[in-house]
Amino acid sequence: MSRRIALLMGGWSNEREVSLTSGRACGRALEEEGFEVEAVDVGRDLACVLSALKPDLAFNALHGGFGEDGSVQGLLEVLGIPYTHSGVRASALAMNKPAAKQVFAGVGLRCPDGLVVDVAELRRGDPIPRPYVVKPVAEGSTVGVRIVRQGDNAAVLPADWRFGDRALVERFIPGRELSVAVLGDAALGVIEIRPHSGFYDYDAKYTEGLAQHLMPAPIHPEVYDEAMRMALEAHRALGCRGVSRADLRYDDMAGEPGELYLLEVNTQPGMTPLSLVPEIAQHRGIDFRRLVRWMVEDAACNR
Question: Which domain holds residue 272?
Fold first, then answer.
């Protein structure tokens, strides 16, 4: 068993603060489990830092760019350091939403119809009928996501859009917000998220009191099983390992059972006090310490 762990957290992505919160929670759990933990607030000198530390294993608590898109995974591969969560290919695919959708389509998983458009074109008018969703091509935690509805201004992107020259535009799926945690080769459960206002955006995810979590999701049993199947199939199709979380929309506007749509797979799901994966795991009898320990053991086995 690997005992000396470099806990990678922080970094410079748009999700830095969330990563720090996840990292602190995981660090406490790891120390309580008897591991020797060295917390690393990741900077551009990470290779030098890790070469000096010589850890047995890296626990990746980074979120967003660099930590979640295959970059840090590639660095760890070069340094020969085992690490938690998915590898280079799965991380890169999952972070690139259009690429992931192609993978999902290839295995028959239903996703919202959509297309990638130039931001300049998007500013000039609607590329598809409203309502639709605009997303950065490669961001997590709903950073930059906007729902464009009837009556909204024609300029559908803020002037300070900073997520590149292209955006993903998808048909808006009405209904309910679901997430499924996958642990290794098993889906753990389905949770429903009900924001108190608006949609499940960055603030609702990480601010206490802005969303209600219902575990297990109160949906038709057949739909519950189908959500579990879709999440596990997506995990496998991308080549994920360790823990992942699939986000889905459930259109039950015409009654149950309705239709499920896979939105994306998160290969570095949050581990904060408000995060969904620990809550789903807890419902299955896996407390936070046990969950974090499993992640380390799984990474050690995949070295």
Answer: 94-110+174-301
